[in-house]
Amino acid sequence: MRFQSVWFILLLFALPFLYRLVVNKKPASLPHPDLISKLGSRISQTTIKKRLPLYLRLAALVLLVLALMRLQYGYVADTSNRNGVDIMVALDVSTSMNAEDFKPDRITVAKDVLRNFIDGRPQDRVGLVIFSGKSYLQSPLTTDHNTVLNYLDQIHTGMIEDGTAIGMALATCVNRLKDSEAKTKIILLLTDGENNAGQIDPETAAKMAQALGIKIYSVGIGDPHGAPIKVKDPWGRWVYARNPDGSFFLTKMNEEGLRQISALSEGGYFMAGDENKLKEIFSEIDKREKTKFKVKDIFIYNEYFAWFAWPALLLLLLEWAYRRFYLRSLP
Description:
alpha/beta
């Protein structure tokens, strides 16, 4: 809240001088002291009645000066991010993210590292997409990182039918970034598998990103040779998935495919075999995509001068009516 034309306040200092000029007159000769005591209250009442129009006018002038000062209330109107970085995170929530080559498992570590990464970029907009057999938007681009982190906390494997729809996840992210006015637009893809679901293949999605100036940073999570996967059996117990011959079923990652989509979009591919390596990768991405700028909020102000102008008009009308109908001299 502010006064746009605060210099009009100087007019308020002129009002006392105006009052003294109008009210103070040459003193008249005093009547006999005995008459003062008898007529004191009557004189006082008469004086108030005669001066009431002046008081009303002075009050109206004060309100008019406040109206000229233009009281305004502003709010942030610019929700775009023209100078910073817009980041869409695509997080794999397929069953294979339960693998325990990361402690306690891949999905938990990925969420923890993501949380620290988002906390370290308070001026950037961040959005969140999760995918497995299908792709879903969890949070649109926003600077309200607490909301994004709340969504991140609620994510777990098994939320979506199983599979790995990398192309669909990238396409969902591209759709959210296509209208962005940010100086830099990136997609962070975290997955431990290869594309085996969805209507859009990763290469097509990467070409879409390239055409729009969006970089894709692909992060492969897990041992490249594979790791056992925890799944729930029909009785709700956690067991390791097995092949028909009884051997452990191991995850499979398409490193070449991830490297290709990152190269198409001029981003980067990283392989994280453990938690420390994953932290180093995100630290490297954080350094690459830093944009320093001064935040300048754009405000739109609503005018509230009418709060003073209308009461001032009412007081002037009241003064006119008082003079016209109450103080007029009878013939």
